[in-house]
Write a structure and sequence with these properties.
Elements lengths: L5 E5 L20 E2 L2 E2 H11 L4 E6 L4 H6 L4 H9 L3 H12 L2 E6 L6 H6 L2 H4 L4 E4 L3 E4 L4 H12 L3 E6 L2 H6 L1 E7 L5 E9 L10 E9 L2 H7 L11 H11 L2 E5 L3 E4 L3 H14 L4 H13 L2
Bound molecules: uridine 5'-triphosphate.
Length: about 290
């Protein structure tokens, strides 16, 4: 079965739910302790065995490219000041993966953003990591999904059960459990369902691995919810025709396009942080005692 070598990170959205923070700075660059959200996502892809990454950007998102580029003046200054660890980290960042960029000229939805990756992907399966969904886990979630694709050769989505309120904001999966633990066969799905349209409380949370056939489907997918071309609508066609698999993944997902999600990501990453984790835990306990 085809190994998954490529990943697409859509990061062109307007981020209207985290304004004003996202007015002049992409929400994908919001810091989680000492790294921007998108760095966690690129690291997840790299730790999953992905070699080539395409980041979909748009106007005003150039600092994403700067973040993954070399910065000779800063590097020279760090070396001269004897800050070897910081230097190593900054250089490592620029060589982590083979990253390229393309602009989505009109912001017409996630499905439209993925269509911009058609030439990059070619005739291979590829992973999609939503640029504002950070997932903290022991085994990278992208790897959990790639393993299923590489075993079964079918599209795979990362799913978890969410509340009734959230399923209406995300999407809902029609599914049946398979013999393998945490694996489901998905036969239908719906984007932003009304209460009477909900199949289950399982929703896609920021990760999928898709066959190249998705491009042909996307090209024939009309605008859907919010008048945008929805990736879920194209995946629905795949689910109804050849079936899609769902992995109830192991990991905590944080929506960086949502104010509460940003705070929750900072708390977990802060507690896990090798430098400040212990002190932050003490602070948090003292603070919580006052609540
Ligand atoms: P979202 O729907 O969460 O992002 O898309 P958004 O459009 O920025 O949302 P609002 O304005 O806060 O409601 C999920 C991911 O897909 C990207 C976004 O940048 C985000 O990382 N995206 C979305 C695109 O690349 N292009 C689009 O047209 C829409």
């Amino acid at each position: 079965m085809n190994k998954v070598r490529k990943a697409v990170i859509p990061a062109a959205g307007l981020g209207t739910r985290v304004l004003p923070a996202s007015k002049a700075m992409p929400k994908e660059m919001l810091p989680i302790v000492d790294k921007p959200a998108i760095q966690y996502i690129v690291e997840e892809a790299v730790n999953s065995g992905i070699e080539d990454i395409l980041i979909i950007t748009s106007r005003g998102k150039g600092i994403i490219e700067d973040h993954f580029d070399r910065m000779p003046e800063l590097e020279a200054r760090l070396l001269a000041a004897g800050k070897q660890d910081a230097y190593d980290e900054i250089v490592r960042l620029a060589h982590m993966a083979n990253i390229s960029y393309i602009r989505q000229v009109e912001i017409r939805g996630l499905g439209h953003a993925i269509l911009c990756a058609k030439a990059f992907v070619g005739d291979e399966p590829f992973a999609v990591l939503y640029g504002d969904d950070v997932i903290i886990s022991d085994q990278p979630v992208c790897r959990q999904l790639c393993e299923v694709y590489e075993t079964y050769g079918k599209g795979v989505v990362g799913i978890q059960e969410v509340s009734e309120e959230l399923v209406q904001k995300y999407c809902s999966m029609k599914l049946k459990p398979l013999e393998k633990e945490r694996l489901y066969a998905i036969s239908d799905m719906i984007e932003k369902p009304k209460p009477e349209e909900i199949f289950s409380h399982f929703a896609i949370l920021g990760r999928c691995v898709l066959p190249p056939k998705i491009f042909q489907v996307l090209e024939n997918t009309p605008a859907g919810a919010a008048n945008e071309i929805q990736l879920t609508d194209a995946m629905r066609t795949l689910a109804q025709t050849e079936g899609i698999l769902g992995v109830d993944f192991d990991g905590h997902r944080y929506d960086m396009g949502n104010k509460l999600g940003v705070m929750q990501a900072i708390i977990e990453a802060g507690l896990r942080h090798p430098e400040i984790g212990t002190a932050f835990r003490e602070y948090l306990k003292d603070f919580a005692a006052m609540l």
